């Protein structure tokens, strides 16, 4: 994979350069629906909504929440959702091949030096010797569906370690967590704000980091319908500009901590409206902070990582071999890195 120092590159780009934050809104009064998961990594959307960045861009936004990537991709294709943040999946690639969707930016990437996704083992498997990824041979690995980001990550780890995994499709993140805690599956990988609390419970153990295997992995992307990408350029640009402002606030507050502890506390309060809403703020705060990962400044997109993912989907027979990056991506809206 092409070397990609995002800390340096994205800092130089800045949100304004990448998507024209200073440009006047041209989509005033447009109502759009934005898809999201209740993950800390989706904080850019929550911040843009709560701090009025979408409204300032002339967009009236409704947030719609999902429990997995594939239903969100289907919702974009059907027109039920206009823009969304999610991992690239085989289903998403297939929808792009049908002319239904386009990836238009990057949302979250693994970055050396920044806490990232963890590789987990159930307590039963850990006690039986699964204490490192090298011991995964013959073990079961949880995923939502075939062709999901979990499937991709597990396969990449297995290939690097020269081991064989048995993948278990469980549809939803909650079901995967339950299966891991009960020992019905042996291993899984997930973002830190979910991984660390699970490990703290004693039912699950952290045995590795995805960044060691996929150091510049473009974990999630920004995508929309092919129609919006091609025919609603002003609206799409306004959406990306507002989203990028939310991302800039998040990185400045949670990564650089430019506003100190008071800023972190205020950001946690905002995110808690959407993440771990079933917990009191005092117990949710640690998990939200544990989930701190740098988001892609300006929604910049790591094309090299997307290329690697597409090749993997094709090698597994999950998508057609003739699909190209141009089929999947519209790179005209943001800076591209690692291409």
Automatic annotation (TrEMBL):
Q: Which positions fall inside the SsuA/THI5-like domain?
A: 40-249
Recorded hits in Pfam families, A to Z, give:
NMT1
Q: Principal localization?
A: periplasm
Q: Output the InterPro entries linked to this UniProt entry.
A: SsuA/THI5 (IPR015168), TAT_signal (IPR006311)
State the compartments where it is located.
Periplasm
Q: Does this entry carry the keyword Translocase? A: no
Give the keywords, sorted. Answer: Signal
PROSITE patterns noted in UniProt: TAT
What residue stretch is flagged as signal peptide?
Answer: 1-27
Gene3D superfamilies per the record?
Periplasmic binding protein-like II
The entry's family comment says:
Belongs to the bacterial solute-binding protein SsuA/TauA family.
Report what the protein is called: ABC transporter substrate-binding protein
Which organism does this sequence originate in?
Answer: Roseobacter sinensis
């Amino acid at each position: 994979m092409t070397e990609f120092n995002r800390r340096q590159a994205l800092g130089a780009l800045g949100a304004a350069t990448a998507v024209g934050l200073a440009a006047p809104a041209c989509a005033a009064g447009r109502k759009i629906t934005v898809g999201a998961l209740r993950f800390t990594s989706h904080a850019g959307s929550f911040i843009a909504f709560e701090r009025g960045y979408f409204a300032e861009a002339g967009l009236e936004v409704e947030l719609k929440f999902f429990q997995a990537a594939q239903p969100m991709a289907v919702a974009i294709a059907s027109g039920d959702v206009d823009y969304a943040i999610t991992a690239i999946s085989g289903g998403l690639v297939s929808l792009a091949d049908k002319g239904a969707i386009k990836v238009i930016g990057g949302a979250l990437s693994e970055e050396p030096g920044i806490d990232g996704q963890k590789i987990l083992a159930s307590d039963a498997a850990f006690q039986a010797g699964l204490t490192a990824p090298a011991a995964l041979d013959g073990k079961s690995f949880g995923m939502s569906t075939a062709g999901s980001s979990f499937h991709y990550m597990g396969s990449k780890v297995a290939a690097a370690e020269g081991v064989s995994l048995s993948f278990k499709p469980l549809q939803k993140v909650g079901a995967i967590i339950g299966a891991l805690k009960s020992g019905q599956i042996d291993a899984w990988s997930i973002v830190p704000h979910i991984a660390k609390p699970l490990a703290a419970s004693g039912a699950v153990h952290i045995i590795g980091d995805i960044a060691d295997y996929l150091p510049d992995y473009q974990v999630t992307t920004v995508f929309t319908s092919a129609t919006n990408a091609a025919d609603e350029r002003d609206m799409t640009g306004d959406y990306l500009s507002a989203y990028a402002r939310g991302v800039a606030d998040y990185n400045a507050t949670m990564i650089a901590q430019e506003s100190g502890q008071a800023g972190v506390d205020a950001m946690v309060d905002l995110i808690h409206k959407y993440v771990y809403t079933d917990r009191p703020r005092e117990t949710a705060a640690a998990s939200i902070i544990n989930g701190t990962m740098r988001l892609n400044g300006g929604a910049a997109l790591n094309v090299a990582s997307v290329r690697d993912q597409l090749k993997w989907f094709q090698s597994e027979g999950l998508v057609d071999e003739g699909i190209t990056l141009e089929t999947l991506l519209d790179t005209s809206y943001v800076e591209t890195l690692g291409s």
